[in-house]
């Protein structure tokens, strides 16, 4: 059994009750020394790149262990937007399939990137805000014969709704729709098994539940589709042999690194690899169970009218969304005055306890709301 107190000793925490892990997880205390060892120390030598490249490989390996896939199926990315842009431009439109299916509850960046695909001739097809996004049948009906891509966001950031990814992926496969799963808000708190999913592409970020900081995104490519992908946004790190240095002879890397590009950043991936390894040892199931226990305690202790996000654990992500009706401004001001760290969206405030959040902290939150 995981000791919350022991875990708390490993993270940079302060006197506030930090419940914004949907935005940015807390850093490990060893992040600075680890960065110094793996980035700055090699930089002091004559040739740092061998160790820096090893750090990038280490990032891939950490994702492979966390998500149950081969390390070579992952390509480091700056963020989800970058990854999605590269994916959509990497495969040609198939005859009669010119639509991209996505949801009005997706993060805006996803819609912004998809809208740019109108330039080469794609159209956008949205599941409406009012549709039941947890019902695979709704997705199945929307996957008409003209849909080439479907983008599935596992955890909706502004509603706290969890989407049944595997069921939707199975429907898409039957309809020969290419699948992209966005796990930016779910990786690290919801169980993910890429072997079981068999998605074509998965994109994500290490900033939130993985506590890896900004700039460490990733792109997973199913090995069954990689040979068909020809990304447009390439660079020398996309090459089969980056150190060949023949300007007249570009050959795609045989693995996911064909989606890389030019000279990469290294710092974000050193930071993220360390936190991913740490949280993998704890296990996503343990993080999920701890989160569910704390959020259930919160839900059970409040007026049911406050709850905006799903009450059922199976439909819940790591985030609870609350709105306090006529008392909303009063209660949120009270929470801020007492060092409860949360943020607000259109539907209410977002609260996301992690593995280092304690029962006492949640009891403090409940007492302030019910005061």
Topology:
Blueprint: H1 4-8, E1 17-18, H2 31-43, H3 49-67, E2 74-77, H4 80-88, E3 99-103, H5 108-116, E4 123-127, H6 136-142, E5 147-153, H7 165-174, E6 178-182, H8 194-197, E7 201-205, E8 217-221, H9 267-282, H10 284-300, E9 320-322, H11 328-337, E10 340-341, E11 343-345, E12 348-351, H12 359-370
Parallel strand pairs: 1-10, 3-4, 3-5, 5-6, 6-7
Antiparallel strand pairs: 2-8, 7-8, 9-12, 11-12
Helix pairs in contact: 2-3, 2-9, 3-9, 4-5, 6-7, 10-12
Summarize the structure.
The protein has 371 residues and is of the alpha/beta class. It has two domains: 4-19 and 283-370, Aspartate Aminotransferase, domain 1, CATH 3.90.1150; 33-281, 3-Layer(aba) Sandwich (Aspartate Aminotransferase, domain 2), CATH 3.40.640. The protein has twelve helices and twelve strands.
């Amino acid at each position: 059994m995981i000791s919350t107190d022991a875990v708390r000793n490993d993270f940079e925490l302060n006197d506030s009750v930090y419940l914004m892990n949907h935005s940015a997880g807390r850093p490990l205390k060893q992040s600075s020394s680890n960065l110094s060892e793996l980035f700055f120390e090699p930089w002091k030598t004559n040739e740092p790149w061998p160790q820096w490249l090893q750090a990038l490989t280490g990032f891939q390996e950490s994702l492979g262990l966390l998500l149950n896939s081969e390390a070579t199926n992952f390509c480091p990315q700056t963020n989800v937007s970058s990854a999605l842009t590269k994916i959509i431009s990497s495969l040609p439109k198939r005859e009669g399939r010119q639509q991209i299916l996505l949801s009005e509850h997706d993060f805006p960046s996803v819609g912004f990137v998809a809208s740019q695909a109108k330039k080469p001739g794609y159209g956008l097809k949205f599941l409406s805000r009012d549709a039941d996004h947890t019902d695979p049948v709704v997705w199945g009906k929307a996957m008409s014969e003209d849909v080439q891509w479907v983008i599935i966001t596992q955890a909706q950031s502004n509603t706290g709704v969890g989407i049944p990814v595997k069921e939707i992926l199975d429907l898409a496969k039957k309809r020969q729709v290419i699948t992209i799963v966005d796990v930016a808000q779910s990786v690290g708190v919801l169980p993910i098994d890429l072997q079981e999913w068999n998605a074509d592409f998965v994109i994500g970020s290490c900033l939130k539940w993985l506590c890896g900081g900004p700039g460490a995104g990733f792109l997973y490519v199913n090995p069954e589709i990689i040979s068909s992908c020809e990304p447009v946004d390439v660079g020398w790190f996309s090459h089969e042999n980056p150190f060949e240095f023949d300007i007249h002879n570009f050959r795609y890397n045989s693995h996911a690194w064909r989606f890389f590009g030019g000279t990469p950043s290294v710092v974000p991936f050193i930071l993220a690899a360390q936190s991913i390894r740490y949280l993998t040892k704890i296990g996503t199931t343990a993080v999920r169970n701890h989160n569910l226990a704390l959020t259930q305690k919160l839900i059970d202790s409040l007026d049911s009218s406050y709850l905006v996000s799903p009450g059922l654990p199976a439909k819940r992500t790591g985030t609870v969304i609350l709105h306090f009706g006529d008392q909303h401004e009063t209660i949120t001001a009270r929470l801020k005055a007492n060092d409860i760290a949360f943020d607000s969206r259109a539907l209410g405030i977002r609260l996301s306890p992690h593995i280092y959040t304690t029962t006492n902290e949640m009891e403090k939150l409940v007492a302030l709301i019910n005061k």
